[in-house]
Amino acid sequence: MNHQSARSLAVLALIASATAAQAQTEVKIFGTADGGVRHLTHVNPAGDSKTFMGSNGWNSSNKLDIGGAEQLGGGLDAHFLLEHGFNLATGALDNTTNTFWQRQAFVGLKGSWGSIDAGRQYTISHDFILDYDPFHFNYTPLIPLTQASSGTRFSNDLKYVGEFGGFKLELENAFGEVAGSNSNGSAHGVGLQYYGEGFTTGASYNRRSVLVGSVYRDEDYYLVGAAFKYGDWAVSGGYMLDTIDLEGTAPNTATRNTFGGGGYSFTQNLKLTAGFYRTTSTTDKARGKDMTIAGLDYLLSKRTKLYVELDRTKYKTAVVTALNTAGASNQMGCTVGINHRF
Predict the structure, then answer these.
(1) Domain 26-341 falls under CATH 2.40.160.10
(2) Which residues does 104 contact at the CB level (< 8 Å), separation at least 6?
(3) What are phi and psi of 115, to 5 degrees?
(4) Nearest in space to 137 (alpha carbons), one of 228, 259, 52, 288
(5) Mean pLDDT over all residues of the chain?
(6) Above 90 in pLDDT, residue 55?
(7) How sure is the predictor about 148, in pLDDT bands with cuts at 50, 70 and 90?
(8) Nearest CA to 138 among 324, 326, 309?
(9) pLDDT digits (tens, 9 = 90+) for 260-307
(10) How far apart (Å, rounded) are the C-alpha atoms in residues 88 and 31?
(11) Best CA proximity match to 68, nearest among 107, 115, 25, 120
(12) In which band, very low, low, confident or very high, does the pLDDT at 7 lie, cut at 50, 70 and 90?
């Protein structure tokens, strides 16, 4: 190797070293630990009550996140997120499929034009409900909106998010990855949201191809909602419709969720929130249920809070179904716990 080649290699090594120093990925580990005790009446047709801890998080989900971002220059960044869910009471996974990164796992780019991410991530409807739900997706094991948010998460998903003035546009397509068909098992959606001063409103639409028996059917999901904030007061609500077209083989299914509520901050550390959630189904024999819930949060710090909630659910029909798993006419619940974000 001549001296010119050696000098060239040395220069390239210095450039590579400087570039690596300037463009290193910043990686963070963070998450939530939520532990609580819940008492619930009428947990079975015999009318028994139950006091228990086992949960994936009452006030918010227990999760461990590894996220990172690299500044690429010109306002462009590359980023990723891996999110693992766990049961704090037992240490077990929060799912029955033994999937470690079951909550989220995606990578993407973000610039002035918006962001695009690829992997397992929340649906557009989930993103929007976060603003319209009075509890902002707290108490997800109790409130019916998580199960109703068009699947909550899509795997194999490409999602675009762009902000234009006061508007946010989201587009997504999840690949079904079924041999011989681009539509079977797939999903796609669009959502538009407006953010004003103290006011948010928007709507979203998702269609996914779901397996019903041995045949794929179209499931359509619609969401509209609004949220208002004035001083220490906040009010929000929305309407959700989920339908499955069974193409004449059976009655089409239609599940509706209507919800609303509000919150008031007594101080920076003390907040009261209350909400009402109505679910109706055209095919479930329980036909529907109404849930009323109120929760009080007391912040010990910016990351740690104590919480207590009371809830009552009334079923239209006392029969064991997917909507009424206990077969009860009504249930009363109370949960107390501690939530810490790290």
Answers:
(1) yes
(2) 81, 82, 83, 119, 120, 121, 122, 153
(3) -140, 150
(4) 259
(5) 91
(6) no
(7) low
(8) 309
(9) 999 999 999 999 999 999 999 998 899 999 999 999 999 999 999 999
(10) 12
(11) 25
(12) very low
Query: Helix, strand, or coil here: 18?
Result: helix
**Domains of the chain: which residue ranges?**
26-341
The whole-number average pLDDT for the span 34-51 is: 95
Q: CA–CA distance from 336 to each of 255, 309, 310 (Å)? A: 31, 7, 9
pTM: predicted TM-score of the whole model, two decimal places:
0.88
Amino acid at 295: G
Task: State the average pLDDT over residues 80-90.
Answer: 95
User: Which residue do the tokens 């580990």 mark?
Assistant: 29
CB 307 within 8 A of CB 295: yes
For residue 218 the two structure tokens come to 């179209």
The size of the chain, in residues, is 342
CA 154/CA 106 separation, integer angstroms: 11
Half-sphere exposure of 108 (CA within 13 A, CB side): 20
Query: Which of these, 120, 135, 140, 335, lies nearest to 234 by C-alpha position?
Result: 135
Q: Which two three-digit tokens encode residue 309? A: 């909630």
| 131: three-class secondary structure by DSSP | helix
